[in-house]
Amino acid sequence: MKPACNLIIDSCSDLPKDAYDREGVSVAHLSYTDDQGASHVDDMYETLSAHDFYGSMRDGAMPKTSQVSLKEFDDLFRPVVDSGIPTVYLAFSSGLSGTYDAAILALDAIKQECGHDVPLYIVDTLLGSTPEGLIVSEALRQRDRGLSALELVHWVEEARFYVHTMFMVDDLEALRRGGRIPSSVAFAGAKLDVKPLLSFDVDGKLSLVGVARGRKKGMKRMAEFYESTHDSNKISCYAAVGNADCPKDADRLSSYLRDIDGNVLVMRSSIGPVIGCHVGPNMISISFWGNDRRKSLSVADRIANKVKKS
What we know:
By secondary structure, this protein is of the alpha/beta class. It has helices at 17-20, 50-58, 70-83, 99-114, 130-144, 149-159, 173-177, 183-192, 215-229, 247-260, 273-279, 299-309, and strands spanning 6-10, 25-28, 31-33, 39-41, 64-66, 87-91, 120-124, 163-168, 195-200, 206-212, 238-243, 265-270, 284-289. The chain is built from twelve helices and 13 strands. A six-stranded mixed beta sheet has the order 10-9-8-13-11-12, sandwiched between helices. A four-stranded parallel beta sheet has the order 2-1-6-7, sandwiched between helices. Helix 9 runs parallel beside helix 10. The radius of gyration is 19 Å and the shape is globular.
């Protein structure tokens, strides 16, 4: 059966090529600049290996990310509009990047020119990297099962809250430098000499969810998080494990997961350079399907959400 719509994903989903290389799927490639100011496209390690990218960071390089320009989005969207095929773009979290907002502006400009019935829809996944890859891979499956563009939009807008993730970084300096976490949190993490454990909140922003004294203990915490939170239904027994050039740690975490759940199917990915600019080498992550994260909001956050709605 021919899919009812096409998909655009972005390179921050950190998926291997064989996971998305199919008819009707295109990629919005984000970019980054090196210390010499040269711009590089995040081509999901087609031309540069993860080991080489993170090796340069270990040697002191501090690459920076650059937002996709309106012109780049216009060039990406025009062929979609001309084709007339309904298309959905699954965008990197607006809580961490201006990519989603830039895509909306580019689409608005096209609509003003071509009319407001342009069959292109942009969805904020509120996720990035491994969890974004998990929801993108399932969205591809749902598309191939016959969901229309609008049905897929509604599916992603609901499904994104059922994706759980936890990741560990060696230190918080890169995230602090990029403005992704407050300086006070980075300072506290450095002084306590711990491995920070982070996640995405329901607004798509990073949140500190714990600390571990040592990588091995941190990975055990991540495996325990999977054990206590994942959906035990066999059709949802996927776990995505991502790593920033630390494959042996990814092997270890995968082994912990299989010890806990003999049915788990582990999908492996390499953390791409755009995400890597902010998390640095040796980041490791786990993502999986579980209960609705909105139901686990703190009392204070539930009150804040009510205030926003009113």
